[in-house]
Amino acid sequence: MSDMIDHRKTRDLTIHRPEYARARRVILALFFISGACSLVYEVVWMRMLTLVFGVTAFATSTILASFFAGLALGGFYFGRVVDKDRNPLLVYASLEAGIGIFAFLMPLLFLGLSGLYIAIAQRFALGFYQISFLRFVLCFSVLVIPATLMGGTLPAMVKFFAGRPERLGWNVGRLYSVNTFGAVLGALAAGFFLILLLGVRESAYVAGVANLLIAGIVFALERPLRASRAATSAPMSGAKAPGEGGADVFSPNIARLALWAVGVSGFCALALEVFWTRALVFFLDNSTHAFATILTAFLLGIAIGSLLIARFVDTGKKLLTWLGVIQLLIGISAALAIPILSGSTSVFRSMEGVSLDAMLHWKWIGMRFVKCLSVMLVPTVLMGMTFPLVAKIYTRNLGKVGTALGNVYSVNTIAGVLGSVMAGFVLIPLIGVQTGIMVIATINIALGGVLLLSEPLIRASTTRRVAVGLGLSLPGLAVLYLITSGPMRLASYYEGIDRPEVLSYTEGAGATVKVYRDRVGDRTLSVNGFPVAGTGLAAHDAQKPLAHFPLLLTTVASPRVNIIGFGAGGTSWGIMQYDVAGIDCVELVPGVLDVAGWFPDINHGVLDDPLFNVILDDGRNHALVSSREYDVVSVDATTPKMAGNGSLYTREFYELLAARLSPNGLVVQWLPFHLLSDEEMRMIAKTFMTAFPHTTLWFSPLRHHSILVGTQAKLRIDFRSLRRKLERQTIQQEFAYFAPATDPIDFLSWFVMGEEALAKYVADARVNSDNHPYLEFTPAMAYFASDVYRIRNLLTLRTWRESPFPLLTNVGETDEEIDAVTEKVRRRFEATHHSIGGDIYATLRRPTEATAEYNRALTIDPQEKIALNPMWRSERSRR
Fold it and tell me: Is the dihedral of CA 634, 638, 641, 647 positive or negative?
């Protein structure tokens, strides 16, 4: 006993040496940076792998499950390693060095993974479960080593810092908090700065350099601390943990119960994160920045909670009671968050009237965080308290602290993965977000009750009161849920402007799909709050050109067509009006197909046509693994600002499409100029031209959007072939539905510029690539400036417009015919110049000037369609 006292005195003196204390502070700071690096890797590697496997819900879940499985394996394995190794600091430094090395190796590994995946997918006809298993095996094979190394850092650090048993809770809570605060920084940096400024790979390289520097500094500190470490670790092998220092002693059964509790708590925590994310995107903007904000807010609460509990856990009595109360409060606060979600308004609505100043983006970020924290802060702070508490209860011997922490960490991590999968693929499709939150909240409350009833230091009478209280609280929460919430149907700003009638509302595994009808009777399809298709004029103006432009321009008699995105089915039906060999339509969200019946006047039941083949997949992934050749590819993607869509606007995606095109094939891409700045418009066009140098730019018929048309050779428009196609009754009916095109002159009036002018227009623009996804990570200011963007882009494009006549072939057999067509094209070109001016004035809400411009257009050419139609003109004034 006297030897133990002497060792302890020696250890305490060593701990309080100034140089030792400074070294511990440095190592703690390095652990903070390590946490930041881990989140950078998670974000970056997730992006890299989705480019291979796609952004379907199942693919992304597979990637995350592989990553977290590696983390759990690392905690489990290296927790045992550091208990056997008497130098945990050396183990930690080696782990950091390994992580840093893998940061530079991963791009090469992903390249090999992509090649192997493509080869297997093209060689074998794999079903859903087979392809899912293949993705997991391939993901796990490349992520297992670096993720395992990351998972081992926490047990190694706890082993190093765990000097005194009566300070175990403080050390675990502090380390967990510091590492999680680092993760907050990493999520912010990756989501808002690093990828935008440096690039995807470069962000990982920066983190890799940081890990290598951490390893180097720790290696340098390790030798001077070796003697101190020997003094501090001498009594560990026989030291009893929690019981020393006056804390409660827990039986093995209670310790195992705590381990189960941290698993159930991790399951509930990640399930709630999935529910909150699905709900909050409606109130944010469903962009990459919105998801980064949600992740950051979630981690922030966890970090705060673990730091708060760390200050009290070592001196507290009845820790199992604390753990039970915390679980009860998590459940109650999660349930009370439902009324907050039900009564939330979108960030955009909250910022109505805010001026378009330089600080707008930062104000928007701040409002996003306010929305997220109003829902998540209290429950996530409570969640953050769980891990240190369980670590204190479960760890019974400091000589086995690494093993104990590894067990707690791995159980919490694996259960979290199961919770996210269960929430996303079982609970949301079966019972929805609202009821799902209540189910998880009930599990938390039930867990709290079990823990309270299992507390050995609580009297029997108190136990009975706890049981009665739980028996009353659960029905009370159910009543509160029914009375205060009612059915919660999530609605974004766009969906809630006119308080539309909801016709269909489905919360599926991949997305929330809604169909609603506004006050004028137009039906709209929205995915996660963003309108993607419908029956209104603006929706037709996006859907129909993606069908008719390529089929009117193609020279292939019976083309094979690939459509990316089904929407309401307008593009698909339009293409079926031509003589096609077949259509492969790739749709990401299964729920979109389920609501096709709400748009019979748009798609006319095209899903039942034998020539129409639906492929449930990510459009990019289909282009990557498919070996089919197409004559026409129509990219009906939603805005590049919407999370998950950015990969459909990169150079590499366009190169994949070019590789799938026949020699006479062509590609069309939607370009929403009211959602994009002039710089972003140029960027997309320039990126498109890297794969399709023979590109032309067109207006959609009603000039709500623009269209890029890329061909394998310089575009030539057969005038007579165009006339024959337009004269077909089915085509006339299609255009009559929203924008009558009676002859080729109408079609040619939508032309903006050819490839030479377009090359000059985009000359100084940047290229959007997988490694530099500028579009996706630039703030989506169109929420506040859509009219500004529309006006500026119309002004710019009007300046760059040129006549389409040089592209025409087979115009006429006689000079008189050619001259007549030339004059018609010239007059329409001049008339359209003034008609565009009318659009600009109408958007500015200046009806007098708009009418004057439209009248000038009609004076030059009485058949200028937009100027001729009062309905279309007034519709512009309403936008």
Answer: negative
**What pLDDT was estimated at residue 242?**
44
The DSSP letter of residue 327 is H
Buried b (16+ CB within 10 A) or exposed e, 308-321: bbbeebbebeebbb
Distances (CA, A) of 422 to 58, 135, 419: 12, 19, 5
pLDDT tier at 549, thresholds 50, 70, 90: very high
20 vs 43 pLDDT, higher one? 43
Half-sphere exposure of 835 (CA within 13 A, CB side): 28
CB-count burial class (<10 Å; 0-12, 13-18, 19+) for 21 = exposed
DSSP state, 766? P
pLDDT value for 205 = 97
Where are the strands (E) in 60-185, listed by range?
none
pLDDT tens-digit profile of 115-146?
Answer: 899 889 888 877 777 887 888 888 888 999 99
Contact 606, 597 (CB under 8 A): no
* H/E element, 501: strand 501-507
Helix (H, G, I), strand (E, B) or coil at 653: helix
SS3 521: coil
pLDDT at 740: 72
CA 265 – CA 382 distance, rounded (Å):
11
Reported as type and span, the H/E element at residue 616 is: strand 612-616
CB 233 within 8 A of CB 160: no
In angstroms, the CA 270 to CA 265 distance is 9
Regarding beta strands 523-527 and 582-587, do their DSSP bridges make them parallel or antiparallel, or are they unpaired?
unpaired
Check if the beta carbon of residue 873 is closer than 8 Å to that of residue 842: yes
* Mean pLDDT, residues 678-705 taken together: 94
CA dihedral of residues 264, 265, 271, 277 (deg, nearest 10) = -170
Q: What is the pLDDT of residues 778-821, one digit of tens each?
A: 877 767 778 888 999 999 999 999 999 999 999 988 888 889 99
Rounded Cα distance between 549 and 565, Å, is: 16
- Residue 582 CA from chain centroid, whole number: 32
- Helices (runs of H) and strands (runs of E) counted in the chain: 36, 14
- Cα torsion 46, 47, 53, 55: sign: positive
Both tokens assigned to 233:
């670790």
The number of beta carbons lying within 10 Å of the beta carbon of residue 339 is 16
Backbone angles phi, psi at 530, to 5 degrees: -105, 125
